Known about the structure:
This protein is α/β, with parallel strands linked by helices.
Amino acid sequence: MTVGPNDARGSALRDNYDRNITYLRVSVTDRCNMRCVYCIPEGAEFIPHEEILTYDEIERIVKIGARAGIRKVRLTGGEPLARKNIDRLVAQLARIDSLEDLSLTTNGLLLAEQAEALAAAGLKRVNVSLDTLNPAKFKEICRRGDIGAVIDGIRAAGAAGLRPVKVNAVVMRGRNENEAADFIRFALDEGVVVRFIEYMPFNRDEEWRARYVSRDETIASLGSLIDASDGGRTDPSAPARYFNIKGSDASVGFISPISHGFCNMCNRMRLTPGGQLLACLLSPSGVDVKAIMRSGGSDDEIRDAFSRAAESKGPRGNFPDASRPMHSVGG
Length: 331
C-alpha cells in the first residue's frame, strides 16, 4: 500500500491515556549555526549525514502519519534553516491535504533571506527563539551569530505573511530574568507574540535548578504590565497560557512545564533527524521508523510504528531524568 498526497483522513491515533495524537514535530537536523548554552553542550556529537532522514523519507512518514490522524506538523532542528533547500521539504509537506497547519521553529539567523521562499512554498507561520534583547548577553547565551540578523528575520517573517510570529524566550536566572518587561515592549513595538519558557533540564544538566525561574516569578516581575488574573489557552492541547498585556489587544504567553505541567493534554509526537519516533520530548528511546523504511518496510509497517510510539507514551515526562541534549530532539 502506498499513501498518496490526497488520501482521506484516517482513524485517530491515541495513546493509552486516551489522548488523541494529532501533532508531529519533525526535527530535520541536529546541527545548528548557534551553540546556545542550554541546547548544545560543548563537544557535542552529531549523527552522520547518511543517517539523517532524506526529504523524501520525511514526506513519506508525514503522509502516513496524516493518514493515521496527524493534523499539524512543525519543522524543528537543530536549526532547520541550516539544512539545504528546506523550502523544498516545506513544499512537499504543504501538498498533503489533510494537514491543517505547517509551521517551523528557528533561531532566526537565516530567516530574513528565506522567509519569502518559505511562505511561497506553503509554510504558514514561524516561531523564533530569542532569549535576550541585549547584544552582549546574546553572545554569552548563543555563543554564535548576530542579534541584528535575528531581529531582521523576525521582521521579514511578518512581512512575508508568516503570522503570527511568535518569539520564544527561555528565562534563565543570572542571564535574562530581568528582561521580561523589555520583551513585552518589543512585542508591542514589533507586532509579535512573546512567550516565556521555563528553563528545562536536558543532557543531565546539573545547573538547571540554579538557573530555573518559575512562571509565577516572571509574572510578578511584570507587575502591572499584564493582567495576571487571566491565563487561558487558545487551544486546549497547547502548552502555552496567555495573559493580556494591559492597554492593548496583545497577549503574552507562558510555557511552564516545570511549575504548571501540561502532560495530561499532550497531543504530540516527535520524529528525530535519525528517524526515531518519540512519544515524548523526554523519551529515552523511540521506534526506529528509518530502519523500517530502509529495510523495505511497507506503509502499513510505518503506520504500526506510529501506533507503537503512541502506546509507549506515559502519563507524564520526567524532567530530572532527561538525558538527551535538546538539539537532538527538536525542543
